[in-house]
Design brief:
This protein has helices spanning about 1-20, 35-55, 75-95, 110-125, 135-150, and strands at about 65, 70. By secondary structure, the protein is mostly helical. The chain has a two-stranded antiparallel ribbon with strand order 1-2. A hairpin with a 2-residue loop joins strand 1 (about 65) and strand 2 (about 70). The radius of gyration is 15 Å and the shape is elongated. This is Phosphatidate cytidylyltransferase.
Length: about 160
């Protein structure tokens, strides 16, 4: 039940975020597909799960963050794990089909640590006490982090 709700919220978040940040689609250039994958994973999985987990589990020790009383440790952790797992999963899935993602030269461990860095950046930005702009700031931050972590493109 909770998983179905998380997926539904993630899809709604993704559609709303893409509508607000239509320029994100331009990131899917041939050598920057990994950047788009990381950005969309942060928006759909990370931000969507942060909302669900924060509301469901954000009490007690997993409650409000000291710098943002409207956000929770549970939500931030869900954003981190969701962004990392979804971005790594999408990249590995697309890479298995031989798509030119620009990260073909990286090992699975390097991809995992790069996705973790991107997820941490997205979770940090998602935790900030700013309302109604995280559908833009979260994927944009993840995309910038992906550009830094993976470079602007590579061997395919």
């Amino acid at each position: 039940m909770l998983a179905a709700l998380a997926i539904a919220v993630g899809v709604v978040e993704c559609v709303q975020g893409l509508r607000r940040a239509g320029a994100l689609g331009s990131l899917a250039a041939r050598k920057l597909m990994h950047t788009a994958a990381v950005a969309l994973a942060a928006l759909c999985a990370g931000d969507g799960l942060a909302d669900v987990a924060g509301r469901r589990f954000g009490v007690g020790a997993l409650g409000p963050l000291p710098w943002s009383r409207g956000k929770t440790w549970a939500g931030s952790f869900a954003c981190l794990v969701g962004s990392w797992a979804a971005s790594l999963g999408i990249i590995m899935y697309l890479r298995a089909f031989g798509l030119p993602l620009g990260v073909g030269h990286l090992s699975a461990a390097q991809l995992s640590s790069g996705c973790a860095l991107c997820a941490a950046a997205a979770a940090l930005v998602e935790s900030l006490p700013v309302k109604e702009v995280d559908n833009i700031t979260v994927p944009l931050t993840a995309a910038v982090a992906a550009g830094w972590a993976f470079g602007a493109g590579g061997a395919g």
